[in-house]
Amino acid sequence: MADKPSSGEVLGIPYNFERPSLGRLLSSYWQPGKGMLVEKPFGIGYTLNLANWRSWIVLAVAGGLYYQQQSGGADLSGGSDEDAADDGDGPVEVIVDDD
């Protein structure tokens, strides 16, 4: 039986299952001449290139969203806290006007 390749592409998506060295790990996340996404040093797909300024914006937005979620976030409905408490699964009164 032939050995399967440990790196390559499938349907345009790169994969690499070779054991990564520390140098390869560090150099794969910092590639100044490349775009925002670069091939992962181990596994399937792409990762962020930290040498690209757009990657830092993505990380800042993701961190801000995570912080907002953990701190409870803002009430985007525009209502007060009492309105938020009424959003439960309690009974609803429906009035039908027969003209």
- Give me the count of strands: 5
Rg for CA atoms: 25 Å
Percent of residues in β-strands: 15-25%
Q: Total helix count?
A: 3
Bin the helical content. 25-40%
What gap, in angstroms, lies between the N and C termini? Answer: 82 Å
Globally, the shape reads: elongated
Major sheet: arrangement of strands: 1-2-4
Structural class estimated from helices and strands? alpha+beta
Largest sheet: 3 strands, antiparallel
- Return the average pLDDT rounded to an integer: 84
Low-confidence blocks of residues:
none
Topology order in helix (H) and strand (E) letters: EEHEEEHH
Characterization of the model:
The protein has 99 residues and is α+β, with helices and mostly antiparallel strands. The chain is 31% helix and 16% strand. The protein contains three helices and five strands; from the N terminus they run E-E-H-E-E-E-H-H. The strands form two sheets. The protein has a three-stranded antiparallel β-sheet with strand order 1-2-4, with no helix packed on it. A two-stranded antiparallel ribbon has the order 3-5. The longest helix has 18 residues, at 53-70. The relative contact order is 0.10. The model has no long low-confidence stretch (mean pLDDT 84).
Features:
99 residues, alpha+beta, three-stranded antiparallel β-sheet, two-stranded antiparallel sheet
